[in-house]
Design goal:
mainly alpha; two-stranded antiparallel sheet; single chain
């Protein structure tokens, strides 16, 4: 139901849907570019691209990702709905010490996706834990008040 009891129905071609969603598709590529940049390696050194989540099924997004990685074929053998759960299960096995010989070879490092900091006088944020820092992280920084008697 759209509004005030009125129903709305329309047909949508894949081409029209892709045109409507193109901004969202580009928004999906941005974090991939940032991740590759943060890794410090060239995208040509990436051997395999595995898609996870429901959006992995969108043909235009698959095409854009393949193009970003110089027309590399994407790995579609893993169920995108189960991939995150599988990774979480592997991490749980590692953390609990219940893993197999294969999981003992793996190393997962949790990192903070954003810098964490304190807002100072003038609204400036001073980073304390920088983006990409391994977790858990601990750092002590001394700040003073901006005005007397605060």
């Amino acid at each position: 139901m759209l509004a005030e009891g009125e129903d709305y129905t329309t047909s949508l071609t894949r081409a029209k849907l892709e045109t409507i969603c193109m901004g969202l598709f580009y928004d999906c590529i941005d974090p991939v570019e940032e991740c590759v940049k943060d890794s410090g390696i060239d995208k040509s050194q990436i051997h395999e691209i595995v898609l996870v989540g429901g959006s992995a099924r969108i043909p235009k997004l698959q095409e854009m990702l393949s193009e970003f990685f110089d027309d590399k074929e994407l790995n579609k053998t893993i169920n995108p709905d189960e991939a995150v759960a599988y990774g979480a299960a592997v991490q749980a096995a590692i953390l609990s010490g219940q893993g197999s010989e294969k999981t003992k070879e793996l190393l997962f490092v949790d990192v903070t996706p954003l810098s964490l900091g304190v807002e100072t006088t003038g609204g400036k944020m001073v980073p304390v834990i920088h983006r990409g820092a391994a977790l858990p992280a601990k750092k002590t920084v001394v700040f003073s008040t901006g005005e007397n008697d605060q």
